[in-house]
Amino acid sequence: MTTVAAYAAPAAKAPLERTEIERRAVGEFDVLIDIKFAGICHSDIHQVREGWGKASFPMVPGHEIAGVVTEVGSGVTKYAVGDRVGVGCIVDSCRECDNCKAGLQQYCDRGPTWTYNDTDRDGTPTYGGYSKNVVVDENYVVRIPEGLSLDVAAPLLCAGITTYSPLKHWNAGPGKKVAVVGLGGLGHMGVKIAHALGAEVTVLSQSLRKKDDGLKLGADHYYATSDPKTFEDLKGTFDLILNTVSAPLDFSAFLSLLRTDGAMVNVGLPEEPVQILLHSLFGNRRSLSSSGIGGIPETQEMLDFCAEHGLGAEIELITASEINEAYERVLASDVRYRFVIDTATI
Questions:
Q1: Fewer Cβ atoms within 10 A, N terminus or C terminus of the chain?
Q2: Stretch 43-66: mean pLDDT, rounded?
Q3: How would you classify the pairing of strands 142-143 and 84-87?
Q4: In this model, does residue 248 exceed pLDDT 90?
Q5: Residue 239's closest CA among 186, 276, 285?
Q6: Which residues form the Enoyl reductase (ER) domain (predicted)?
Q7: How is residue 290 annotated by DSSP?
């Protein structure tokens, strides 16, 4: 075991503070990663504040991790010291179920081991990326291509794969009309990736405040959902609606925007229950679905795609001492579009 510096929430809803945590010794198939940058995801805030239910403390959040390998176990074959790598939302899974064998580790039948707020295979708590380093099995590490700088690559380990996976699964591409609901940490990557895939992209946001940004990021159209005329004008328009917001919506209104056989896919997770009238699905054989991050192979595919197309997150780099302020700004939608911690400041 080694002791490393980190930022942790000591209790639910408590401010994060600098502390020290223990990391396991590097095992046969492990890599030790010197974390350079860690993104702040809205889910970090949900979990620190127990918005999704009871959590374990002290909690070190962070599942958007980019860094450099500094040590490898004797059995490691995929990585070497000096490699640029990333770690996303999961650090292990059963490896035996059909989903794991298919590269869908995020849907592991026994449940994946989450990067933080979980229990590792050795019975110890998992701690996330708001720290100096992390030890991870090589099979749950991905390579960051040279075409991506580590700071803008870090948010891709959650925001990138969370939007890439459903866009690919629901065949976003040329000839398809895709709407992205919300232009935040997830939504801005959804716009970039959908555009790069060749789809016609529309942003549906509460207001037109970020319209110029949305168009620069690759959107073809931008509408305010606070205007009832939006739902009249766009009725029956979209093949796919990617909902990235973590708040309840009027699902009937949004589902009315789908074409026949269109799908609305949710990647944001509200803390409150949501309601839906099944009548809103009947008319055009519409689907309401969801998608959870992505497996390890698809995460690597996403990184390679983003490097090929020059897609990194739009970030605001902060010091570790600014984490608590950043949380409040995320809740106030005051970030364009992802906070990233320079872990050298921990």
A1: N
A2: 95
A3: antiparallel
A4: no
A5: 285
A6: 14-341
A7: E
pLDDT at 91: 98
Look at residue 100 and give its three-state secondary structure: helix
Helices H / strands E in the chain, number of each = 11, 17
Pick the CATH number of 2-158+314-345 from 3.30.70.20, 1.10.3720.10, 3.40.50.150, 3.90.180.10: 3.90.180.10
Q: Does the N-terminal peptide bond of residue 337 adopt cis geometry, omega within 30 degrees of 0?
A: yes
The superfamily in CATH containing domain 160-290 is NAD(P)-binding Rossmann-like Domain (3.40.50.720)
Query: H-helix or E-strand containing 205?
Result: strand 200-205
What angle, rounded to 10 degrees, do the helices at 159-169 and 296-309 form? 100
The separation between CA 48 and the C-alpha centre of its own chain, rounded to angstroms, equals: 16
User: CB atoms < 10 A from the CB of 13, how many?
Assistant: 9
Count of beta carbons in the 10 Å neighbourhood of residue 81: 11
Instruction: Map residue 261 onto helix, strand or coil.
Output: strand
pLDDT given for residue 308 in this prediction: 97
| Residues 273-291: b if buried by 16+ CB within 10 A, e if exposed | eeeeeeebbeeeebebeeb
Q: Where are the domains of the chain?
A: 2-158+314-345, 160-290
